[in-house]
Every structure is written in structure tokens, then in C-alpha cells.
Amino acid sequence: MNTTITPVGSLTAGEVREVLTAATSAPSLHNTQPWRFHCTPGAIELHADTSRALEAADPEHRELVLACGAALLNLRLAIRASGTVPDVRTLPEPGRPSLLATVRPAARRPATPAEQELAAAIPRRRTNRRPFHHDPVPAVLQASLRQAAETERGWLAVLDPPQRLVLCGLSRRAHQEQLDDPEFVAEWQRWTGRAGDVGEGVPVRSSGPVPEPQDEFVLRDFGAGGARTRVTGKDFEPEPLICVLGSFQDSRHAQLQAGMAMQRVLLTATANGLASSFLSQVVEVADTRRELRALIGGGLWPQIVLRVGYGSPVPATPRRPLEDVVTGELEPNRSS
């Protein structure tokens, strides 16, 4: 049985389906897709789906909120690309903790070229865990990434070579601490190395190559569904562009904003022909996150670490069907 989504505000049913598809294209830890959308005649509600939280890797649900923030930015941009201005209210009802935002389609107004460019990048964005080319990212593009973060009240720190060396050590420590945690390893194995298109988790086709002993930066092994170390260095780009996206506070609201800033950075990178991936371990372990905060000056809360460069094409990770993540004004289309 097919499902038809009804109009929301000034959006047609077809536009609602398109903007929700864009929203669910956001990245999330282990591709858990921890969001739900509830449609009413006048608004789209974004909820955190804590049933999909990774309690070992993300016990405070910080990365879950970041993922929802990324989905919220996609939703905003897709609505703008349809020629509508979204009225966005974040954390609108303290008595409903799962409700992160309401988005009401408001007046009709054509999107700007910049908004159209970022919206067009949504389906092209990928998490690229493979080696990047050795070409450095030009300073003008680095400035564009920083500006993208600042547009969403975030801050992007580009690490210099001495800072990258420190980060390398922090990543190794954090990675080893997680490997020593049986609950983390079991959780990791449940969500990675999946065969086929099951709609969630990280499939084998989205993993990077097997590491070699001389490699330096720690990346997770998403290919085997096991607790092996994957690293970058000699066989990857020798001097990766490593960026730390931070927020000025570490509240739930700040984390939601950081998720929007992260996604605007990722879409800006995609629109400019850049690839990206995440180095999550260092911000998931409390001690190394605290040391990373000191490394970038102590005034910002590090929310995510990004690796950016020029990469080869990679396939998209799967997404659950909208019917699994959307509730509310949904009607069965029995004529199909």
C-alpha cells in the first residue's frame, strides 16, 4: 500500500514529501537516523527518537541532537528551495523534551541562488571514508567553510600541523578506550558492516580500505562490523584538512545549532567539490574531548571533528522510507 502525504501550510503534498526526503538525508552516527517528523496541517515537527540512541558511544545523546540539527537545516533549505520561507522555532515546548523544533511554511518568496546551491547539494553529500587526493584545500574554500559555520552561530577551527599531531594522539587514546568497552564494541558491531540495503546502519560498500601499519590518523572500521582499527596517513592524504566545529555553549539548544552549523559546512563543502568524513572518537570520550577543547583555545565546546578534502565518488548510505519516520497527516493511497 502506497502512502500519500497531505499538504502542510502553503506546501503542497508533493513538496512536503520532497522536503522530508531532504531532511532525512542528513548524516547521523552509524547512520542510525535518530529523528521523527510529525506533520500537522500547519507545521512539521522535528522530534528526537531516543529509541535509536547509541547509549555506549553517545550516552548524553549529544551526537543524536547534532544529527537532528543537521536534518533541521536540510528541512529549512529544502523549504526555501521550494520558494517558501520557513518559520522555525527551536525547543518550543519545555514540557515536550523530544520536540526539538517546529517548522511552519510561511510566505512564498523565491530562494536565493546561494540557497538553491546548498539545497541542490543535499542529495549529493556523502560521508567519504576513503583516501582523499593529496591536493590541499585552498584558503578561500577554508574561509567559506568557516563562514558557513558562523552563519549558524557555530565556529570552525582549522587545525595547524602541531595541533593535528596532538589530535592524532587524542584520537588513538579515545579509540583504544572505546575498543576496551565491550558494550561499545557490541553496539558498533550491531550498526556497521551491513550487507545489502536494509535502510539503516553503515553498509560494507560505504567503508574505507583496510588500514596498513604506517598509517597515522585513527578512523573507525565500518567494513567488517568488528572492532578493528582503521587509520589514515601515508596511504591517505599526507596532510588532511582537519576542522573542529564548536559551539559557544554545550546546552541542548547549542548542540542543535551546532548540528545545523555542521550540516551547512558539509553542504558548502559538497557544493564546492569537497568530500568529508568524521573523526568522532575524540569527542565521544570525556577526557579527550576536554583536552581537545583546551587545544582549540578553551572557549569553545568541540562538537564534531571533520576531515575535508578532494575525494573520489562514493555511494550513498541507505535511508529508511518516510513512512517509518513520519507520523500525522498521512493517508493511504488505495488507488495505487
UniProtKB/TrEMBL annotation:
InterPro entries: Nitroreductase-like, Nitroreductase/BluB. Gene3D superfamilies: NADH Oxidase. GO terms for molecular function: oxidoreductase activity. Residues 317-336 are annotated as: Disordered. This is Nitroreductase family protein. It comes from Saccharopolyspora antimicrobica.
